[in-house]
Every structure is written in structure tokens, then in C-alpha cells.
Amino acid sequence: MKYRKLGSSDLEVSAISLGTWLTTAGGIEKDIAIACVNRAFELGINFVDTANAYGRGASESVLGEALKDRPRDSYVLATKVYFPMSEEDSGLSREQIARQMEASLGRLRTDYVDLYQCHRYDENTPLDETMEALTRVVQEGKARYIGFSEWSPQNIRDALAMVPEMEKFVSSQPQYSLLWRRPEKEIIPLCVENGISQIVWSPLAQGMLTGKYSADAPPPADSRAASDEMGGFMDRLMQPEVIAAVDRMKPLAGEAGCTMAQFALAWVLREPNIASAIVGASRPEQLDDNAAAVDLEIAPILFEQAEAIAAAIPRPKN
Fold first, then answer.
1. Structural domain of residue 7, as residue ranges?
2. Looking at the domain assignment, is residue 267 inside a domain?
3. Would 240 be classed as within a structural domain?
4. Maximum Cα–Cα distance for the chain, whole Å?
5. What is the count of structural domains for the chain?
6. What's the burial of 240, exposed, middle or buried (CB within 10 Å: 0-12/13-18/19+)?
7. pLDDT in tens, the chain (318 residues)
8. How are beta strands 12-14 and 3-5 bridged, if at all?
9. Burial of 139 from C-beta contacts in 10 A (0-12 / 13-18 / 19+)
10. 218 CB contacts (<8 Å, ≥6 apart)?
């Protein structure tokens, strides 16, 4: 495994990290989920990302059980806050951040998280209130650093303008893959200028970039697209033109001597501002394949050809 510095923090995170929305939120059996966490550590993955909203606390609870016997300084733990935990509990108000922080720590069986992230931007709470609350959890030692997910460039600039009175963000968690490159336009350049790293979700485009889907056959029974719990975001990707594009990328991965998933992860990790690519797992052996991507040296021309294939996918007009 290789490790990268997370923004302006002193955290060193594995280039491949374990995301828990798929793994510990209830989509797979708990013993398999814990086996996935254990395998991640065996492979040198030291960074685990979760959220209070994953399974409405279930993910944090299972993860807390999986981590309870490990030395706390042997891993980097991140969680998030924003999405509803009940009809009354959601958002980034001062009250919610304090309440959800305590609840997350309890489920995770720890005194602190290394990274506390805003899962989205809260339009209904003044930004200064949110930043004050995040600053307080850092000052109280309940979080070492803070980050955000899917904030607009203006949201980010507004928060940075409050530094040094308020705590500074060290991480951004956007969707990013060969099939979704939107962060390259504004988010990544802005973050480079301000010591903020990307920890990207869906680097395999919900599994589409593993190459396991076919336009002529139903999804594999053990795939995300076949799962009622985990397949809700697949509609945009399960299109014939997207599947055909990935099929055209497979020979490029073959030429590089790797699997399609490894090729897609190596493409993401080519970007210096990316500290880590978050992957999920429903079986421990999937992590072996993903972790091997960090050692690949792939000819840039192959990445350029894959980018051209992705750019040619017809986009919806709406």
C-alpha cells in the first residue's frame, strides 16, 4: 500500500480506503462485513470512511465492533453528518453537529474521529453557525480535522474566508471517476490552492468500471445493480452506451496488464490532489484486486484513450 498526506493535516492515509456504505450499512451479512474490514487492514489500508446516515447508524455500529480491539492510533477514521437520522434530526445546525457527533462516537466506540465531514451543504443553516460548531468539536478533541462532501466552489470559498477564526477544511469528498470528471473544472484547482485533498467516492462508478455488466444479460446476482438495498444509484449508469464504452476500455486494461477495476482506480490516483480513492466491498477478496492498483505504472497514452472513450458517451439532454 502507498500513503498520501491529507491536505494540510498531519494525517497519512492509504491511497485506497475502505468505504462502508456498501460494506457495513446492512447490505451484506455482519460477519462478512467485519471480514472485509479485517482484510483491508491486512492489505495496509489504514483509512476507513463512514457516515451516521449509512443504515441510520448501522454502519457506524458494525464498524465500531470491527475496530474495538485495534489500537486507536493504527487507523484513520472518518465519519459524516448532515442527512436525516430521524424526522427531527438532520442538517448542520449547532445543535445537530453536537448531538450527532456524540452519537457517532458512541456507535464507533471511540473518543474521537480523525476526520469529521459535512455530508452535504446545509442551505437552511447559516454557514458561520456550522463552522463554529465544527470548530468546537475540534477544540473539544472529538475530531482532529474537518472536511466536506459535494460543496460548491462558492460554499468552499465562503468557509475558507472564515479562517483562521474558524477551523480550516483539509479534505473534499466528491464523486470522481473516468465516467464523472466534474471536480476537475473548479473543485480540484480551488482545493490545490488551499491545502485541501480529495478523498473520492465512487471511483469505480458504482461498480460499472469493473466491467462486470453486459448489455445483453441481467446484472450478476451478487452485483450492486442487482441489489434492492444498494442499487438505487445505478439507473444513470446501467445504459447500453455506458456499458459499451466500458467494454471498449477493457482492451486498454488488458494492454496495461491489469483488471478493469485496477485500471480505473489507477486513473483516479494519477491526480496528485487525490489523497485516497474510497472503495466498497461485499467480499474480502475484492479488496485484494483494488489494493493492487496502487502499484501500477500505466502508460499515459492508455489513460488518454480511455478518457476519449468516456468523453464520447452520449449525454442526456436534460
1. 3-311
2. yes
3. yes
4. 57
5. 1
6. exposed
7. 999 999 999 999 999 999 999 888 888 899 999 999 999 999 999 999 999 999 999 999 999 999 999 999 999 999 999 999 999 999 999 999 999 999 999 999 999 999 999 999 999 999 999 999 999 999 999 999 999 999 999 999 999 999 999 999 999 999 999 999 999 999 999 999 999 999 999 999 999 999 988 755 554 545 444 345 544 555 677 788 999 999 999 999 999 999 999 999 999 999 999 999 999 999 999 999 999 999 999 999 999 999 999 999 997 654
8. antiparallel
9. exposed
10. 226
Pick the catalytic residue from 3, 54, 75, 116. Answer: 54
| Amino acid code (one letter) for 193 | E
The CA distance from 268 to 265, in Å, is 5
CA 128 – CA 113 distance, rounded (Å): 22
Q: Which residues of 90-123 are buried (b: 16+ CB within 10 A; e: fewer)?
A: bbbbeebbeebbebbbebbebebbbbbbbbbbbe
- On whether residue 317 sits in a domain, the answer given is no
145 catalytically annotated = no
C-alpha cell at 106: 458512541
| Pair 263, 294: CB distance under 8 Å | no
Q: Write the CATH number for 16.
A: 3.20.20.100
DSSP secondary structure, 99-143, as one string: HHHHHHHHHHTSS-EEEEEESS--TTS-HHHHHHHHHHHHHTTSE
In a domain, 280, yes or no: yes
